[in-house]
Design a protein that fits this description.
Layout (H helix, E strand, L loop, with lengths): L5 E6 L5 E6 L5 E8 L13 H9 L8 H10 L3 E6 L4 E8 L3 H13 L8 H16 L2 H13 L12 H6 L2 H11 L6 E6 L3 H12 L19 E5 L4 E10 L7 H11 L6 H8 L4 E10 L4 E10 L3 H14 L6 H18 L3 H15 L5 H9 L3 H10 L6 E6 L11
Length: 416
């Protein structure tokens, strides 16, 4: 897979970084803006403040009120999204290449001149409260949310939605103060992928964001993770099982071997968890594992949803499969993994939105951008022997376990 990729980088004195990857074979262009205003910065009595701020920011900016903001983006054919992570508020837009410049003008207003209207605070609050209620009504999300809280040091495991008490207590003054403190160029990333003219893009971003004042980055104070075995009582005929263990972050030289070991566990109907836990024994209706990375840590999160009657066996078999990884992996498992990942890389070549998001993520995690060819080379270099060597040295262990259901489950001695 050899494609012509031109990647441009410009770092502004304020700390803002502009990234762009040329995909000249496309007629589209996509934009991602990440500002360092994630839920890590929520005060303890205002959990959910970042999410409330994100919702309010979308309700008018610059010369546009809430309706005009949406209408003007719709008129440009912009497909948009937004989200809150531990570290950032993120806004994304995908449109025809010819409409990139006017879309960027609108997003500059969003970042620099949001209205944050007092009269729409309750509407924003209701949206966030509905998201919280949806999680309460979805046990699989609830158990994974609690797993992250137990496994990560605070504030890195906080749920982006916050909690009902924090959302209910949030005022518009809180939102304005949060935005004014954390929406800053230091640590912000603007990334573009698709068809564009780099000199024109750089000139526009310089004009729009060149006088954005720097404020410095607030240091995050961590508190140790519980990393325990926890049960959440829940009246249901189903039981949710969630397991986490430490791995490697994206910037680590052995990341791809660590990531490949998780690909053996999950990601297809031939993967171990699906085969051993669901297909052979029929223990659960859903099972998966995924690798999650933050800037300085990486971890694996596993989930299984099962009946209350088969919950103990599901936990036992899932943990046994995780522990069995230390014995190594097979060449045919790695061959299937490579085929699956290369298909995903090919699809990324056709998605300006995926690449705009990826290069922003790369910059945050690595301080540089990995090209698709570089990633393909790393994937090609994976071998069963290499991953087995990694697993022998760093096997899954020291598990954080959260279960949700009628009864607590037993964790065998020596497992956690």
């Amino acid at each position: 897979m050899t494609v012509k990729q031109a990647i441009f980088v410009h770092e502004f004195p304020s700390g803002l970084v502009l990234l762009a990857e040329s995909m000249e074979w496309l007629e589209s262009a996509s934009l991602t803006v990440r500002v360092p205003a994630g839920c890590n910065y929520d005060p303890s009595d205002r959990a959910g403040l970042a999410g409330m701020t994100c919702e309010q920011a979308l309700r008018g900016a610059g010369p546009r009120d809430s309706r005009e903001f949406i209408t003007d983006l719709d008129n440009l054919g912009v497909e948009r999204g937004e989200g809150v992570s531990s570290s950032h508020l993120s806004f994304s837009a995908a449109t025809l290449a010819a409409n990139l410049a006017p879309a960027l003008e609108i997003y500059a207003d969003l970042i620099l001149r949001p209205h944050l209207p007092e009269d729409q605070l309750e509407a924003s609050r209701n949206v966030v409260l509905q998201e919280l209620q949806a999680i309460e009504d979805e046990p699989s999300q609830k158990v994974m949310q609690e797993l992250r809280r137990q496994h990560y040091p605070d504030p890195w495991g906080r749920p982006s939605q916050g909690d009902e008490a924090g959302v209910t207590a949030t005022t518009n003054d809180d939102i304005r103060a949060f935005w004014n403190t954390h929406c800053r160029p230091d640590g912000s990333i603007i990334s573009v992928a698709g068809r564009f003219d780099w000199p024109a893009l750089l000139d526009q971003v310089s004009r729009l964001f060149g006088d954005w004042p720097s404020r410095g980055i607030e240091e995050i104070v961590e508190h140790p993770a519980p990393r325990s075995v926890t049960h959440i009582p829940h009246e249901s005929n189903q039981t949710q099982v969630a397991i986490a263990y430490a791995s490697l972050p994206y910037k680590h030289p052995d990341y791809f071997r660590a990531w490949g070991s998780v690909g053996v566990l999950s990601g297809g109907m031939s993967a171990r968890l699906f085969t051993e836990v669901r297909e052979k024994r029929g223990l659960c209706y859903s099972v998966y594992a995924s690798h999650h990375t933050q800037r300085d840590r990486g971890d694996v999160f596993c989930y299984a949803g099962t009946s209350a009657e088969r919950a103990q066996e599901t936990l036992d078999v899932t943990l046994a499969e995780l522990i069995r990884l230390k014995d190594g992996v097979l060449s045919e498992e790695i061959d299937r993994l490579k085929a699956r990942i290369k298909s995903s890389l090919i699809m990324q070549q056709e998605s300006s939105g995926a690449r705009a998001s990826s290069i922003a993520r790369d910059w945050y995690l690595l301080g540089r951008v990995r090209t698709l060819d570089e990633i393909e080379t790393a994937i090609d270099g994976l071998t069963a022997a290499g991953i087995s060597e990694y697993l022998a040295a760093q096997p899954p262990r020291d598990f954080t376990i959260v279960t949700l259901g009628q009864q607590a489950l037993e964790v065998r001695d020596g497992v956690s």
